[in-house]
Design goal:
The complex is a heterodimer. By secondary structure, chain A is of the alpha+beta class. Helix content of chain A is 20%, strand content 23%. Chain A has a two-stranded antiparallel sheet. Chain A has a two-stranded antiparallel sheet with strand order 3-4. A two-stranded antiparallel sheet of chain A has the order 5-6. The N and C termini of chain A lie far apart (36 Å). By secondary structure, chain B is of the alpha+beta class. Chain B folds into three domains: 198 residues, Aldehyde ferredoxin oxidoreductase, N-terminal domain (Aldehyde Ferredoxin Oxidoreductase,  A, domain 1), CATH 3.60.9; 75 residues, no CATH class; 228 residues, Orthogonal Bundle (Aldehyde Ferredoxin Oxidoreductase Protein, subunit A, domain 3), CATH 1.10.599.10. Chain B has 27 helices and 18 strands. In chain B, helix 2 packs across helix 21. Chain B starts with 10 loop residues before the first strand and ends in a 19-residue tail after the last helix. Classes of the chains: A alpha+beta, B alpha+beta.
């Protein structure tokens, strides 16, 4: 897998990157994002395999989409003993190389946001890879409750 | 490569409440002919609910049936159908249906079940917890008597936020015939009195946690493309802004501006026809469509302001918390006001503040009296029709709000011939399943641009869908029979899959300039999800089969052509100065000049045309033996037309007609 590994702290921290952002006020809790994510990633509708999740509080009217932040300093990446996690040169996203993942769970333990999922059948970790820069969840969200932002140096002008 | 088969979860879970046991059978034997949802449930009802069964007896079966598209990426796939013998239908109890949106249907499928059948009756109050590894019976004495919000909040704490519940409130426990089955704050199987059936079975709630489960999809890529295509074609409906299908009055929009915190939706839905609302001093809740029933009376009583908004909001909250159908209340509340004004009931004997229609006290006390069966509420708990039989002089005014089957007006049967036929030929309010025809022929013609339809656009769509633009001409009964039969078949397809009636069939597009929709959407989505390549005509045939199976169930219960009618008052002009004419309807009738009579001769001629189109005997309304065989309903033919008999096997004698 063509991933950038062994980056220094500053290279990692200052890298240009894309990230999903969630807008809970616009979310209606329909879970279409979760559904399409699991369909794309595992070919079935399986909420636990979705790389994002919607927390619903139906008696408060609160619907909170939780997405991977593609952290500037990814705890998951640093925690992986196999160095199976690297950075996509194209999007700056934090990617798990499944050919290296042993399923030890260190990344899941390290993630402060609970965004690492385990695909039960294969025993490997998985996470949001931004679908290569065109996230399917973003495409299907009927309310624009999800957005894609760019972090990094701005060009002049 | 052979595609993975998808859609169905595979199991039917049967819970014997009397024996506290459960068993699972495959859904596969039902799939080929009846698909799922309404079709599967109607087949179970045909096989297992005897015509003499009492709706509130232990022998009734309460069937919750999802379909192959429930819980998938298909737009509007958050629904399932509930089917049982209904205690609410009038004049006699009959097997009927009620849809339920939200998130519970998906969870049931993730747990591994296409359907849940509740059989028998528990000795003491129970709730069920369903997971992939089985069913648990839990005592529900501590929940019995609690409202639907409190019940679900407690169950969520007990079984985790992933769990989804359906439950009943005190109205269902007390077997009020207009009691609902509730999920969350306003997802509701409301029309068919199934809350009373669940209460009679002493089941307070059914909690499902489908953790670890999945739903297969045969062609994921195709499904994703179709989802995008149909979401785009459907476009943005103003119902997202209004939550109702008509142009709302200014104070409705003002209410939203003040109190809406966001929109809400069922699972998998782009429409978002519900809003989430916070009114100061009261609990927050979702609101949609008929939940608005007390807004106008409250504003007339108090004038604009917080007091009126609180009165209206408490009506919505209280009916959903106690588990009463708001559509029933939309008819009962003004009907009682009229009875009071006509001097037919009084405050003292009713035990209600009848002179204060529009006040918070009026509606709160009315709802509580029905849910807890106190005073006049004990009579109203039988449903408006049966109550109207008991209250001297009440029937003519009752009819103003109730077209047929004891269910509240939902589009004027006087004004719209197609809608009159849909009402007459159904077992319940049909309009929930026929939003598409209603929107094409009535509602959207009244919407402002850019949302609305011009007459020319509507006629072009009708020409394309029905082959005849007269199908939406409300001045004549011509061309209605065929359109009605087609719409019924399509509603059966939709309810078998199960998809939402606010989106399907797609008669109209909000995004195309010519507004033409696409009636092939269901078959394309069904093929992509299940891998069973099925054309639109093939699905239509399944819809026709399911409709005729429902018809056969009614026939076995005693239904004939004579009962395919409206309450008889609708065949007479209303004198403009009669109390009934002054009543002015519920506001859901969209009636401009609805004092005119339904023309009986035209109506009956259209019925004859309809039976001939369907292959039913026009004398009796019974499907002929040949029709049943043509539709692949051999077992129905064998029972309705026993060997050597000249006529159909007689059903039990039902109550007939109106008093």
């Amino acid at each position: 897998m063509n991933l950038r590994r062994d980056l220094t702290f500053s290279e990692l921290n200052m890298r240009p990157r894309q990230s999903l952002v969630a807008n809970p006020e616009a979310c209606t809790g329909c879970r279409t994002c979760e559904t399409v994510c699991s369909l794309v990633k595992v070919g079935r509708i399986q909420p636990e395999s979705a790389r994002l999740r919607v927390e619903r509080e139906p008696f408060e009217g609160l619907f909170r989409p939780h997405v991977c932040r593609q952290c500037s300093t990814p705890h998951c990446l640093r925690a992986c003993p196999e160095k199976a996690i690297g950075i996509s040169p194209k999007t700056g996203a934090v990617i798990i190389d499944r050919s290296k993942c042993q399923g030890c769970g260190s990344c899941a333990e390290a993630c402060p946001f609970g965004m690492i999922v385990f695909q039960a059948e294969e025993g490997q970790a998985a996470k949001c890879d931004l679908c290569g820069g065109q996230p399917n969840c973003l495409r299907v969200c009927p309310t624009s409750a999800l957005g894609l932002v760019f972090f990094g140096p701005r060009s002049e002008g | 490569m052979r595609p993975e088969s998808g859609g169905w979860a595979g199991g039917i879970l049967r819970v014997d409440l009397s024996g506290r046991s459960s068993r699972v059978s495959p859904s596969e034997p039902y799939v080929e002919r009846f698909v799922g949802g309404l079709g599967l449930a109607a087949k179970i009802a045909w096989d297992e609910i005897s015509p003499g069964c009492s709706a509130l007896g232990a022998e009734n079966k309460l069937i919750f049936a999802a379909g192959p598209l429930t819980g998938t990426l298909a737009p509007g796939s958050g629904r399932l159908e509930v089917v049982a013998k209904s205690p609410r239908t009038y004049p006699q109890e009959t097997v009927t249906r009620s849809g339920l949106g939200g998130h519970w249907g998906r969870e049931l499928k993730l747990a591994g079940y296409d359907a849940l059948v509740l059989e028998g009756r528990a000795e003491r109050p129970v709730y069920l917890l369903i997971r992939r590894d089985g069913v648990e019976f839990h005592p529900a004495e501590d929940l019995w008597g609690q409202d639907t919000f409190a019940t679900q909040k407690l169950l969520r704490r007990r079984h985790g936020p992933r769990s989804q519940a359906v439950c009943i409130g005190p109205a269902g426990e007390n077997q009020v015939l207009s009691a609902t089955i509730m999920s969350e704050t306003s997802f509701c199987a409301g029309k068919s009195g199934f809350g009373a059936v669940m209460g009679a079975k002493k089941v307070k709630a059914v909690v499902v946690d489908g953790s670890g489960g999945s739903i297969g999809v045969a062609h994921p890529g195709r499904l994703i493309q179709l989802q995008a295509h149909y979401r785009e074609l459907l476009g943005v409906s103003p119902m997202r802004e209004w939550t109702v299908g008509y142009v709302p009055p200014a104070h409705h929009l003002e209410f939203f501006n003040n109190y809406r915190s966001g929109n809400a939706s069922c699972f998998g839905c782009p429409l978002q026809c519900m809003a989430f609302v916070r009114v100061p001093g009261l609990e927050p809740s979702q609101i949609s469509c008929v939940n608005w029933f007390y807004l106008n009376p409250a504003h007339d009583y108090y004038g604009p302001g917080l007091e009126a908004d609180q009165a209206f909001w408490s009506a919505n909250l209280l009916s959903n918390k106690l588990g009463l159908d708001t559509f029933e209340l939309a008819g009962v509340a003004p009907w009682l006001k009229d009875l009071y004004q006509a001097g037919l009931i009084d405050e003292k004997s009713a035990g209600l503040p009848l002179s204060r229609f529009g006040s918070r006290e009026y509606i709160s006390q009315l709802i509580e009296s029905i849910a807890f069966r106190r005073g006049l509420g004990d009579v109203l708990a039988l449903g408006a029709a049966r109550a109207a039989e008991k209250l001297p002089g009440a029937w003519p005014i009752y009819e103003r709000y109730y077209p047929a089957h004891g269910q509240t007006e939902h589009d004027s049967v006087r004004n719209f011939p197609g809608i009159a036929l849909l009402w007459a030929l159904d077992s319940r309010d049909p309009m929930i399943d026929h939003h598409a025809y209603r929107h094409l022929s009535v509602t959207r013609l009244r919407w402002p641009q850019p949302h609305g339809l011009t007459r020319e656009q509507a006629e072009a769509a009708a020409e394309k869908i029905f082959g005849d633009k007269t199908a939406i001409d409300h001045s004549t009964y011509q061309a209605k029979a065929r359109a009605v039969a087609y719409c019924q078949n399509r509603s059966c397809v939709m309810n078998a899959l199960v998809l939402c009636d606010l989106l399907y069939p797609i008669f109209i597009s909000q995004s195309r300039s010519d507004r033409l929709g696409d009636t092939a959407a269901e078959s394309r989505l069904f093929s992509a999800v299940t891998g069973r390549e099925t054309t639109e005509p093939e699905l239509d045939l399944i819809g026709e089969r399911i409709f005729t199976l429902e018809r056969a169930i009614m026939v076995r219960e005693g239904r004939t052509r004579a009962e395919d009618t409206l309450h008889q008052g609708h065949f007479q002009d209303l004198a403009q100065d009669s109390p009934a004419a002054r009543a002015g309807g519920t506001g859901y009738g969209l009636a401009a000049d609805d004092s005119r009579a339904v023309p009986r001769a035209d109506f009956e001629r259209a019925k004859t045309e309809y039976y001939n189109i369907r292959g039913y005997d026009p004398e009796t309304g019974v499907p002929t033996r040949q029709t049943l065989l043509d539709l692949g309903l051999e077992e129905v033919a064998a029972e309705l037309w026993p060997q050597g008999s000249a006529g159909p096997a007689a059903g039990p004698a039902g109550e007939r007609g109106d008093p």
